[in-house]
Design goal:
This protein has 61 residues and is mainly α. The protein is 62% helix and 0% strand. It has four helices and no strands. It is globular, with a radius of gyration of 12 Å. The relative contact order is 0.15.
Length: 61
């Protein structure tokens, strides 16, 4: 991938046990553009959805 992922994004993906290499190019570019605050929102959303049905989580993401 041409764009380097920022450290806060790499940490997020590591914490989620997702390999950056597994991301499609469009997702890679989106993740590369996320700020630290946006990553915090993703973490909050994940916590808020912990008890939600998997189908709901998939639809939200």
């Amino acid at each position: 991938m041409a764009t380097e992922l920022p450290p806060h994004v790499k940490k997020y993906l590591d914490d989620m046990e997702v390999s950056a290499d597994a991301l499609p190019q469009d997702a890679w570019e989106t993740f590369a553009s996320l700020s630290g605050g946006e990553i915090l929102l993703l973490r909050k959303l994940r916590k808020d959805l912990e008890k939600a049905d998997v189908d709901v989580v998939i639809k939200v993401h």
